[in-house]
């Protein structure tokens, strides 16, 4: 496997409460979400039913928490899969820096990748194929018509707190990497950056953050985040079944 890493996300610990590491696999291009996302949409707003936001505290386990949120959102709602901590351990056992035969494992690294989380969910039997979006519009069309997605992006100081209107902004100083679920969007929402349309973020910092644990992120900011070493992934098929518990290397 050819893995390309932004090494500063490994050599320097992410800020507590974050934990997403950058990775890139050229084979993602073989699974484009654009091939599955509807080209035409017949609605301008959608908000999928979602759980009460979980709280990762000061851990580096956002990839696990965002994956749990993804599973627990409609249209196919599953229960919590293992504990987020156990899922995080499974993610690390199977991520790009720990899987046998892949890149050299860095010493004492914190965090994991969004890819590892979806790999574990697939092995557990909770999802089928998962696909990747490379821009916000593809993600928007999917969220409006099909279901939630997970974003893994750089996280900036302007995203640590929400504005009075509930927005986070991709501005200020980079503070690490973060993974978070997108449970809805609104094409008609006016954004502080002057653009129109925003995603509804379901974060993993508990209900005391933002608007009861949620926030708005403009399509414009999301597009820039995805295109700047970011990723957007969702499962084309989600199953409501009794999953297999993954505790080690797949």
CATH homologous superfamily (4th level) name: Cysteine proteinases
Count of structural domains: 1
What name does CATH use for the topology?
Cathepsin B, Chain A
Q: What is the CATH-assigned architecture?
A: Alpha-Beta Complex
Shape: globular
Q: How would you classify the helix and strand content by structural class?
A: alpha+beta
Largest sheet data: 7 strands, antiparallel
Low-confidence stretches: 1-15
Helical proportion, percent range: 10-25%
Intertermini distance: 16 Å
Total helices: the number is 6
Beta content comes to: 15-25%
Could you characterize what this model shows?
- The chain has a single domain, classed as Alpha-Beta Complex (Cathepsin B, Chain A).
- It contains 6 helices and 7 strands; from the N terminus they run H-E-H-H-H-E-H-E-E-E-E-H-E.
- The chain has helices at residues 8-11, 62-72, 84-93, 114-123, 136-145, 219-227; strands at 45-47, 130-133, 149-156, 174-190, 196-202, 214-218, 231-235.
- It is globular.
Quick recap:
With 250 residues, this protein is of the alpha+beta class. The chain contains six helices and seven strands; from the N terminus they run αβαααβαββββαβ.
Write the layout of secondary structure elements.
Elements: H1 8-11, E1 45-47, H2 62-72, H3 84-93, H4 114-123, E2 130-133, H5 136-145, E3 149-156, E4 174-190, E5 196-202, E6 214-218, H6 219-227, E7 231-235
Antiparallel strand pairs: 1-4, 2-7, 3-4, 3-7, 4-5, 5-6
